[in-house]
Amino acid sequence: MSTTREEAPSPPRPDSNLNALHKEVMMTYCFESRHQSALCGQSPEEVVLTNQYIPLSIAENMEMEGDGTRSPNTLEDTLRTVLLRNRDQARVVMMLGPAGVGKTTTMQKMLLDWAGREELEEFDFIFPFAFRDLTLLEQEMSLEDFILVQHGHFTSESLAVILQSPQSLLFMFDGLEQYQYRLESTSHSALCTKPNQSAPVSVLITSLVQGELLKGASILITARSTASLSFLSDIECNHVQILGFSPPQRKAYFDQVFTDPKNAEQAFQYTEQKMGFYGLCGNPVFCWIMCFLLKETLETGDDLPETLTQVYVQTSASIFRAHNLEEGRARDLVLGLGKMATYSLGNSQLLSQKDLADSGLQQFLMSPLLSAFLFLYGDPASDNCMFSFISPIVQEFLIALLYYLDITWSGGESVEVLLGKLEGSVKFLDVFLSGLSDAAQRKPLEGIVGEFSKDRTEGLREWLKNTTVQSLQFLSYKRPLSYYRLLHQSQNPALVKEISDSQAAGLGRYYSELSAWDSAALNYVVMCCGGRDELHLHSSLNITGEMTLHLIPAFRLSRKLALLQCTLSTASYVHLASVIHKGRTVELDLSYNRAMGDSGAKALFEGLRDCSLQILRLPVCGLRAACCEDLASVLALPSTQLHVLDLRSNELQDEGLIQLCRGLRSPHCKLQELRLQDSGLTHLSMEVLSQAISDDSSTLATLVLDGNEVSDLGMDWLTRALRSSKTSLQHLSAFDCNLTDACCEGLAVALLSEGCSLTELDLSLNDLGDSGVLQLCEPLKFQGCSLEKLRLVNCQLSEATFRELGAVLRSGNSRLTALDVGLNKVGNTGAKYLWQALADNHCQLEHLDMEMINLTDGSLEDISAALKANTSLKTLVLKNNILTDASVPSLVQLINDSRTIQKINLQYNDFTEDVFEIFETCGRVKY
Ligand SMILES: Nc1ncnc2c1ncn2[C@@H]1O[C@H](COP(=O)(O)OP(=O)(O)OP(=O)(O)O)[C@@H](O)[C@H]1O
């Protein structure tokens, strides 16, 4: 027996001359031969051959390499990596990206680099195909014949040898959407396995992709979208999404197109600022159009385009001018192109001679003007010549022109019907329709193709006005923005004014994700109305620097700016600071901008150094101690106007508050209200705080410390401040601050001291108990005690305290007008004391809250006596008790009879639906 394994015979090597010949032929291969036009740029072949190719960017969702490093993210590197990875397996790569983003150009570059022996040397043969050409191959054929039809420089014999080494082959297929047959994920039995086996071309391609035919060959396909990729569902396939030019790449492009670097810079900056928000600047063709247009306008000194419509109007007007077509013929051409564009939307991207004739364009077949708008494939004189629009956006522009030039077209349907019909297949049609409704914008074209229908331009304006007003009326928050884009496009300030006059309220509020385009449009609308007093943007999660930049003029005109629950970039805070700096904004509310953090805050505080801001709300903004020093120095500035500062729910901790107190202690500080709920504070910072509020110069009237570990130790410091005649504190809230009865004696003394001007005190959710609150009741019975509102919700109180509180209210000395004692389970017997007090004419209570104190129907008699006699109570809260239907008729009668009660809350008692009718007879009951 032989010990050596029998080796499989290696496939014969193709003749190296053949390889060289193929490369030579490929040096002249071109995916698309076309004329250069202002609307489509240089051909891919020309770009590559003249070394004008600029690397493109891709989406960064490429998988990680085995060692955890990220794949390179330029398109060319990525393609090389995925094509050469794991050479034992079939590699199918989809290159995806919108029209004009550079797919064909990239293929062309790869092919020429390979043929010039620079790249992809691992492949002996690359076979390029354009799907468009394959559409003509209707008959069945073998793979060998399929290649020979397109690449006639091989013989059958030489090709047979080449196909024996699939791993050294790369097939390129460009433009899937131009293939008229669908590629299906066919069952394996229906696929081809041998290069000489005949099948429809679509089956040959699917067999290659599925690895049934020429297993091991590599395949690269380009497509505009993933819409028709179901044939790839069973196989492993790399998707590479092209984004186009990044900002530095487009800068390089502008530098390349303009000979004068100054003009290049000016044109680049102008394009970024005026057109950046349309989302088109990454597209090489759009960059080309802008370069073409700006070159012309910079030379002639004409007006630069402000809108997308102007870009396409001016570019096409320039094309028409260059060809000097008389008006009637120019109009016929545009009408024909518009009709064919509409037909192509609903049918095929690839159009035939018949489609051209049906649209009345036959007369223009030989005109170079036709190829400014259409790609022509093949000999125009032959029946096989095919056409496609140079881009979907040009197609939509032509449809918009048709709408205004032919009112009989498509049954004379309204703009609403037209847009509804084409929804989903157009992106910019409404934009162009709006832009073209403006006489100034359409003027350059009107001079060439004749007048636009007045009925239609006026109809568009009327439609735009009505739909915008409606969207504002019905508070559909997202839609107004889409109409603002159209208003911006129509550049008609009078129209915006009309809308704002009828819908003033809605114009200042926006609840949705904003885009850069929305920001520019919003700014336009606000500026047309001369600004808004209040501007509210809610829930926009990605406000970039660019977006804030667009909004600066509108922001600067607003006295109140509220950007709630948004996420702003650091650059946005810098821009916001510039808005506030020396501006007229008096209130800025950035609540729930969780990502702000100290860095965002520091950038913002720069703007506070010289401004009119009086109210600053920064709750839940991810702030920490690090930003407090800057804030303190702002508070200490002689120019500061700030009197309300809301820093709730930021982890400032004692360290942060101690820093802040440096500002509070400044004689310049004018703060009247400081909100510090849930800030991670303890008693350790209370001494410094207490000193700050006892200062001569302190203006602080409201201090909210809810949810901090103030504890009795901390409260002792605060009561010292309250005793000081210098403090101006009127409202202290210490809800849930871990207080016990131990702090009550000090508080009681403070409440009686001469300097104390406290009118509101909230000690809810602290374990004060009867022993604590009974001590507090003492000062309340004296006339000198200024307290008017007291909240003692959930303080573990019992009947004894209620009895004492009743005595306080009846004493005739108490100034209490509001008392909250809910969630202390005293039942009817405890509540009785307060009902009795209410019946007493010394009691001045206007608000009483006894939520969840276990009140039952048994207290009805007491309630009745109290409400009949009382003449001061305005609001009564009895929700979450155990009252039943039995009490309802009497309660409702009492409220109906009362002259003072404005609202009684009876929610969440034990009522059935049977009594809802009775409740409804009284508008003052909440149930
Ligand atoms: N990398 C590049 N560098 C310079 N110019 C480019 C580049 N890519 C594309 N262009 C320009 O943009 C034009 C359109 O590119 P291309 O035809 O490759 O786009 P595409 O993605 O194949 O579009 P479609 O889906 O319409 O076929 C080219 O003709 C060329 O002028």
From TrEMBL:
Entry annotated with the keyword Cytoplasm: yes
Protein keywords: ATP-binding, Cytoplasm, Nucleotide-binding, Repeat
Subcellular location: Cytoplasm
Domain NACHT as annotated: residue spans: 91-229
InterPro entries cross-referenced by the UniProt entry: Leu-rich_rpt, LRR_dom_sf, NACHT_NTPase, NLRP_innate_immun_reg, P-loop_NTPase
Entries under Pfam families matching the protein: LRR_6, NACHT
Gene3D superfamilies on file: P-loop containing nucleotide triphosphate hydrolases (3.40.50.300), Ribonuclease Inhibitor (3.80.10.10)
One example GO MF annotation: ATP binding
Domain of life the protein comes from: Eukaryota
Bilayer-crossing regions: none
Cited PANTHER family: NACHT, LRR AND PYD DOMAINS-CONTAINING PROTEIN 12, NACHT, LRR AND PYD DOMAINS-CONTAINING PROTEIN 3
Family stated for the protein in its record: Belongs to the NLRP family.
Protein name in the entry: Si:ch73-233m11.2
Species of origin: Paramormyrops kingsleyae
